[in-house]
Write the C-alpha cells for this entry.
Amino acid sequence: MERTNAWKAYEEKDLKTVQEIGEEYRDLISRCKTEREWAREIVRRLEAKGYVSLDTVRRQKGKLKAGDRVYVNRMGKAVLSFYLGQEDLENGMNIVGAHIDSPRLDFKQNPLYEDSDLAYGDTHYYGGIKKYQWVARPLALHGTVVKKDGTALDLVIGEKDDDPVVGISDLLIHLSADQMGKKLSEGIGGEDLDVILAGQPLKGEEKDAVKATLLRILKDQYGIEEEDFISAEIEVVPAGKARDFGLDRSMIIGYGHDDRVCSYAELKAIEQIEGTPKVTCCGMFVDKEEIGSVGATGMRANYLENAAAEILELMGNYSELKVRRALQNSRMLSCDVSAGYDPLYASVFEKKNAAYLGRGVCFNKYTGSRGKSGSNDANAEFMGRLRCIMDGNQIRWQTAELGKVDAGGGGTIAYICALYGMEVIDSGVAVLSMHAPCEIISKADLYEAVRAYHAFMMEA
Ligand code: MN
Ligand code: MN
C-alpha cells in the first residue's frame, strides 16, 4: 500500500517539464502574493485563452453555446471560469476549486502611530498563524487604497531589489528570560505584531515628527492620506521571492503555497483544455478560506449558483430546477494543500495515512477534527471513480489524513460545495511548514496535481 516516490518514474522529458512548471510557478508566487494580485493574473491568463467576462456577454445580450469560455470576476478577489461542454449543463460540471487567500497580517483601519521615535503600522492577523514566525524578518506591504472619490491605488512596497522593506522587532535574547519561559503561543501577542514603518523625524515638526515623515512619504510617493487607511486593504506579507529549495532543486520554498500551489495547478490544467470538452469544466478561485470562507468573495457566498443560473439563461435554457440539477449533478475536486509528513514531528502523524513530499497529488477523503467534525467525508464510490481516472492516466497519487486522530485538524471549501449535493473530495499538494511565512512543496507533487486536475476535468 505504500506509494512510490514520483521522481523515480520520471524520464528525461518529464524532469524537464517538472522543472519548467516549477519555475513558472515560483515566478508567479513571487509576483502574486495577495488574493487581488493573483485574481488579476488569473483573469489575464483566462482572457489570453479566449475567456470572456460573463457580465460582458450578458450586457451585450449575447448567447452562449458549447465550446464557449466565460469567467466571473467577483470584486477582484474571486474568479470562476467555465469552459462549456457538449453535455447539457443540468447534467453537471467537472469542477476544480481552490482558494487564493493566504495567512498574513492586515493593517487595521486606524493603523498609524508613533512611539519612541519610531512610526508603526498596527495589524490584525488574518488566518491561522504562529505569531512568533512573523517577527524579526523582512516584510513587504501589498494592498489597495480606495479614495473617497472611488479611485483605487494599488501599492507594493518591499519586493524590488532596491525597495525598502518593513518588519516587526523581536525581543533580544539577553532580556528574554520571561518571554522564553512562556508557552510558544503566548511568547508574542496579537497586539505585538506592529510593523516598524519609519524612524526619521520630519524637520521642524514638534509632535509625532517620525509619523509626519511617514505621512509625507505616503502623500508624496503614493498619494495616500492618513484617513485613506479607513478604506484600504494593506496586507503585510514576507518580502522577497520564492526560491528553489534543496541542493537538487526538487522543492520550492516560498510564501503562500497554501493555496496558490493548488490554484496554480488548477489554472494550468484549465489552460490545457483543448477543443470542446464533453462536460463543462469549471474552475473556482475563491477568497476568505483562511477565515472560514465568509464574506461576499468567500465560498459561502452564492456566486457559483448565480453563475450557473446566468449561463443557463444565456444558453436559452434557464429554470431554477435546472440550476439545482447542474450543481447537484456536478463532481468536484476541492483543491487544497495537505500536511506533508515531517519526520522531525513524527508524533503528530500516522505514517500509513500521511502525505509524503514527492509521492504525488494527494486525496483526503475527509479532513475535520475530533471525529471528522466539520469535514466533507467523500463517498467511496467517488473515490473509486477517481482511482480509475488517476491510474488510467498514470498519475502518481497518494491518500492522506491531516495528522493523527485527535492531534488537531483543519477544513477546506469542500463541505460548502457539498451543500449543493455534488460529489466532492479534497485533493492537493503536500506542504511542509504549512501557514509559516515560508512553506515548502515538492515540484513533483505540483506537476502531478496539474496532470490530475486536467484528467479529472476531461473524464470525471
Ligand atoms: Mn488551504
Ligand atoms: Mn490554510
The mean pLDDT is 97. The radius of gyration is 23 Å. The pocket of manganese (II) ion (ligand 1) is lined by residues 99, 258-259, 289, 336-337 (CB under 6 Å). Residues 104-238 form a domain with the Aminopeptidase i, Domain 2 fold (CATH 2.30.250.10).
